[in-house]
Amino acid sequence: VEAGAVLIEIERAFLEVAVERARAQLLRAKAAHRLAVTELERQRGLAEREIASEAQLDRASNQERASYAALLDARASQSEARTRLEKTAITAPFAGIVNSLDLEPGAYLQPGQAVVELLDLSEIEVEFGVTDREVVALQVGDPVSLRVDVFPEEWFAGTIAQVGHAADERTRKYPVQAQVPNADGRLLASMLGKVRFSVGDSSPAIWIPRRAVQREFELDYVFALGGDSGTAVIRRRRVTTRPVPFRPGLVEVIEGLDDGERVAVSSVRELREGQRVRVAGEES
Description:
Structural class: alpha+beta
Oligomer: single chain
Order of helices and strands: EHHEEEEHEEEEEEEEEEE
Largest sheet: 7 strands, antiparallel
Low-confidence stretches: none
């Protein structure tokens, strides 16, 4: 169906009657208010000539306010009746495929009842979960590829549309949503498949073993080795690190180390600033 196409029409007869009743109620309310206004003006004139009492003027004023409130209520009732009549047709909010419409003519509907399922298959939404080490490397707009079981030899290209910021309580995975174009309609809702994506970038990076990093007061430090081969002088160096996706034993050094520098990876808890050490595996 196209956007705006009528999917369901509710019987209009009773709603049309309700609109006419609301219109009649509004006409009566207008007449009653006009009469109350006229009476109030008459009582004011009589009061100015000291013919009518204050009590009579008060009663006329109260009657005018009450009739005005009834007029407002009648207008609201007419507006509600017209709105209900205008909503007798349920139209498609977007172009798509009607997947289910399990209704017969004459069926009764309840407020909030689901009556039709409309699918927009021009673009498929893919949901999958990733670990905490993987989610830090994903961003909205990153490319993904989808392969479904019914087309095992073909990959469909898409992009990441949303990355969850909280893990699912049951699976402990972070939800990720990707969108895959489906102009030819070959992909259907609820199909199962596999998602392929890349993490990180191809730019040079400094990776070191996680055990080489000491954490103190929420800051990371390493022991850099200075000097020639064989012996080295320990220098405590503050660094900034982040996890390496799919490599739990490694961290990436963002700041604090230069390419080619050596760091201590064993006995780091026994090392001290300025200490001279002998590097294992190198001649003294």
